UniProtKB/TrEMBL annotation:
Matches recorded under PANTHER family: OS02G0663900 PROTEIN, PHOSPHORIBOSYLANTHRANILATE TRANSFERASE ISOFORM 1
CDD domains documented for this protein: C2B_MCTP_PRT_plant (cd08378), C2C_MCTP_PRT_plant (cd04019), C2D_MCTP_PRT_plant (cd08379)
Location(s) in or outside the cell: Membrane
Name this protein carries in UniProt: C2 domain-containing protein
Domain of life of the native organism: Eukaryota
Record's bilayer topology term: Multi-pass membrane protein
Gene Ontology CC terms, in alphabetical order: membrane
Entry's transmembrane regions: 543-570
InterPro entries: C2_dom (IPR000008), C2_domain_sf (IPR035892), C2B_MCTP_PRT_plant (IPR047257), C2C_MCTP_PRT_plant (IPR047258), C2D_MCTP_PRT_plant (IPR047255), MCTP_C (IPR013583), QUIRKY-like (IPR047259)
Record has Transmembrane as a keyword: yes
Amino acid sequence: MADLLPRSYARPGMLPPNSEFGIREITPRLAGSGPSGAYELVERMEYLYVRVVKARGLKWSDEFDPFAELRLGGYSCTTRHVEKTVSPEWDDVFAFSRERIHAPFLDVFVRGRGFAKEDYVGSTRLDLSILPDAPASVQPDSSPAPQWYPVFDKKGELRGEVMMAVWFGTQKDRYFDSAVHADAAFPVDDKLAAHIKHIRYDVPRLCYVRVKVIEVRDIVFADKARVGEVFVRSRILGQAHRTRTSMDHRWKDEENGHMFVAAAPFKDHLNMSVVGVKNGKEEVIGHVNVLLDNFERRCDARPISPRWFNLMQPEGATKIDKYSAKISVILCLECGYKVLSEPVHYLSDVRPAARERERERKCIGLVELGIREAFLTATRTRDDRGSCDAYCVAKYGVKWYRTRTVTDSLSPRFHQQYHWEVHDHCTVLTVAVFHNSQIGDKGGLVTGDPVKDVLLGKVRIRLSTLETGRTYAYAYPLMSLHGGGVKKMGELRLAVRFSNTSTLGLFQTKAHFFRLAEALEPLSAASAWFYHVCRWTNPVTTVAVHIIFTILVCYPSLVLPTFFLYKFLLGMRNYLRRPKHPWHVDTRVSHAETAHPDELDEEFDQFPTTRPPEVVRMRYDKLRSLNARIQEIVGDIATHAERARCAVALLTGFYLMRHPILRQRLPDVVANFFRRLPCKVDCLL
């Protein structure tokens, strides 16, 4: 039976990846399914946490700005300094990966800003061997209470006390996100800490602002003897729109008005200026500022009433007595829409700006992401060897997470887990890997030049391709497209799981051409299969088709059951052959790896072109040949269309002039339906 079916009827899915750019399934040690936040998608990693709270009774000859310095083997980090006090409060938390610790003692120095390298107020030493190991089941609030530790100077005299808490914990500890991971290849100060620590970004709530100007009244020009054209300019921060110029000072025909984008909590102002125009010169007649938070909020299509605002004269203008110019305008915040701040094909959130609409759209599930580890190519050299300072950014919905920066490592181990509520199944989770260009000897913090972090690659996971409750663990390639072609920058290992919490809510040119060809491939395969049946290429198949056709002609009642049975069996076969892994970037779909070097060079060329005239002429000739082929195809299509039109006209004429024997006395179905359509003839006198 399988030979009777065209092979291309299989479910169209992702093309089989090659060995270099394809995703690869991994078998990590997972703790199994569990509640959110249990860190079962990543491995357990232990850290030495040091919380420096404050100090008291510090003794020094002069006023100084104290700060604390921690030294653990070859690692060093400092707290922020507090100006001119002997009882500073820092409350800074530092974390050292236990697998990188090779020193038995932790030294804490209290120093002052501007001190010599050897000078310090006092120091204390902690023996790490007496600290208990991290418990197997760590609670988020299991950190010990801080204690006072005496600090002594070089002569052994007491110089004050420092309150600290030191303990071994895991990434589940509540201080993990706020801690500065100080196990870097260079000293970590308060400026560097801001660029390597874990950060959570909350995406601002964006909303459309509609401004529709109705009319302006009682405006007075500086030259009172003239009446000129005016227009209204509206501005919110860097966004600006203007109406058309009008002689009657009315704009009721501008139906939709102007649209702006603003972010909550809407503390910005809308500036509207009435500008007069004469002989090509513009003159500001009046202006008004309106706070966005005072706008009416609309979540539906109800009409908004216009409001009147008094205009103020611009600064420096000639004062006019009894200035009473007014402007009528419709202002509202369109909270029922979603501002598309992401690419349409990779949306991670489709909820509207209105809080009320968010409550109506219930959470249908939970997506959990475990960023495990990466294996990267070198992006810089340090000590005559390749190095990379990598971090990841996970983006979904209104919460973005940036992992800590793992410095000086080509195989960084992150093992951080995040989760988001899912309100729409057809959304995309994006994870990107960056090289931190702000740190190091040539980083932006040292040179003072604005430097962007280097994107090494990104991974997109569409939630609709994930099975509910299943944990996916894969190694995703990190690819970068540049003038030399596609380059693999490494791979990122992720674990992702989608959990269902509500059962009611779930039920560029060449590339597009090949996608369309793949979508139409079943029709082409069916046509080729029927052609071979008619040509008796396989006699067994042709005889079987004759038998099935004879049965269906003799028993018409079996046509629909046979059709639905065929579709059911086809669906079952496609389901069993479905991809077992989530879809990922496939270089074969984009045809990036097979692109000609000249095509890539043309893609990355500037405008106007910077290439030699010979190259431009070659590309122009290539375009002309392609255009000639397209014209030939269009001509063939036009020829067939003209023949089809003649055939349709011929058949239509023969049908209308058919012999009365071939006609029936009953009225035509189409004409009968047309005559029964409603009309207002019954309303006439």
